[in-house]
Task: inverse folding
């Protein structure tokens, strides 16, 4: 099978290169990708995208070295399915099944192991990258190190990962989960800090850590512990909803899931966003096919809404208002230092009518610096995720701009998968600046790929 997988991969690389050469010299190069986890507008482009068929699978797994060679367009759903039989998993498994390994590295990813394992790109040992110049180069800490370090958070503007060799870590068949309730976000942040600094809670080693804020007076830390002990497990792919299971009156609540279901606990309801489609209503959920209770299907519904402005049209008709946007989409993940997290959360809960909020702490694994997303080594950050909409103001992007300003004031950053409103100077200061420009000039000298500011901020 490994030989067959490598043959499929090699043929896929040749198709990829042929499709690159077929794109007219004046057209922007882009992926011909059937799915996406981006929430910002895409550039208009009439040229056919790159052919990525044959680059969607696991090439090989080395259980002794605990590594995997993976094609860049392989989804984490397929990657995890291949590694779990060996009792292994990627060091960080982003929450949604259709996120690709290449996408998580070039666009960042995070999950409940990030407080000890950092971000997905930190477990990459080497990767083959199709650059804007049409070359496939192997990048690693020793080969093309400038490209290797600048690639994370470059969103395909320096090239596309074709193959990645990543580290894996041992997992156990089950995860025991403790949900700790707090009545103030300051107390939650203090408890999070203690767990990260000590690595444990009540004498037990914590393997997974994230949290949810429902309001200023109700928030939770979710602690996961690897275990081989058999016993009953919960199932949140049916009528029960995971994020609702977290809530309880006081103290701790205990739960158990298989490692597979723990890794995908958020995907069934796209965290809590499936409620926008009625999928959490008991009567509707009963008849909603289980195979369509997943983030990839909800994303398709979002795509239809974005294409045809369905939500705005319904609201305009019901309110008899002029045809203009009535809601501002606020779909973001931001990072702020742990010591500023309570300040940000209190500001957000006061000024932005969105709940719940997802919390995920992270620390870089090493002293390596990544210029496109310059987090400081040996410092704990907290990712805050919020995905909804608010009433639109006369100023387009009003709430998103307020959030950007507050995040920058607290020495934070935000991911670029959704709408951004920075000025060019602000953007350069936050996302690579001259380092990015030099790497871009070296590996995409003819600007066949969009530059990051054009892709992430400018409307096209």
Result:
């Amino acid at each position: 099978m490994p030989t067959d997988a490598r043959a499929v991969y090699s043929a896929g690389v040749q198709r990829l290169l042929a499709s690159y050469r077929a794109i007219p010299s004046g057209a922007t190069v882009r992926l011909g990708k059937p799915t996406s986890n981006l929430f910002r507008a895409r550039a208009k482009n009439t040229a056919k995208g790159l052919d990525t068929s044959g680059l969607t699978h696991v090439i090989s797994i080395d259980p002794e070295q605990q590594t995997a060679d993976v094609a860049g367009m392989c989804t984490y759903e397929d990657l995890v399915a291949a590694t779990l039989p060996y009792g292994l998993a990627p060091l960080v498994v982003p929450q949604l099944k259709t996120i690709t390994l290449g996408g998580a590295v070039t666009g960042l990813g995070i999950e409940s192991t990030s407080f000890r394992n950092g971000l997905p790109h930190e477990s990459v040992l080497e990767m083959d990258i199709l650059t804007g110049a049409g070359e496939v180069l192997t990048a690693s800490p020793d080969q093309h190190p400038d490209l290797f370090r600048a690639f994370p958070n470059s969103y395909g503007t320096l090239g596309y990962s074709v193959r990645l060799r990543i580290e894996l870590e041992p997992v156990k068949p089950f995860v025991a989960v403790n949900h700790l309730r707090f009545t103030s976000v300051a107390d939650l942040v203090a408890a999070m800090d203690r767990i990260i600094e000590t690595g444990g809670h009540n004498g037990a080693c914590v393997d997974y850590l994230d949290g949810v804020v429902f309001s200023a007076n109700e928030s939770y830390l979710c602690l996961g512990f690897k275990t081989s002990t058999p016993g009953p497990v919960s199932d949140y792919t049916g009528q029960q909803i995971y994020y609702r299971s977290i809530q309880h009156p006081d103290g701790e609540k205990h739960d158990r899931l298989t490692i597979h279901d723990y890794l995908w606990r958020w995907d069934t309801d796209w965290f809590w966003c499936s409620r926008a489609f009625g999928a959490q209503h008991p009567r509707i959920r009963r008849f909603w096919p289980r195979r369509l209770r997943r983030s990839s299907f909800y994303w398709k519904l979002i795509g239809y809404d974005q294409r045809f402005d369905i939500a705005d049209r319904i609201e305009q008709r019901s309110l008899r208002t002029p045809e203009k946007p009535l809601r501002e989409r606020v779909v973001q993940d931001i990072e702020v230092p742990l010591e500023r997290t309570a300040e940000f959360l209190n500001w957000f809960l006061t000024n932005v009518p969105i709940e719940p909020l997802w919390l995920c702490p992270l620390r870089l694994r090493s002293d390596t610096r990544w210029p496109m997303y310059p987090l400081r080594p040996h410092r704990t950050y907290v990712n805050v995720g919020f995905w909804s909409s608010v009433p639109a103001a006369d100023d387009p992007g009003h709430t998103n701009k307020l959030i950007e300003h507050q995040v920058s004031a607290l020495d934070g950053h935000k991911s670029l998968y959704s709408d951004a409103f920075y000025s060019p100077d602000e953007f350069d200061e936050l996302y690579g600046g001259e380092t990015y420009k030099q790497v871009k000039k070296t590996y995409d000298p003819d600007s066949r790929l969009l530059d990051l500011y054009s892709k992430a901020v400018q409307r096209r």
Observations:
- The domain at 174-265 is CATH 3.30.70 (Alpha-Beta Plaits).
- The first strand starts at residue 58 and ends at 62.
- Residues 2-22 form the longest helix (21 residues).
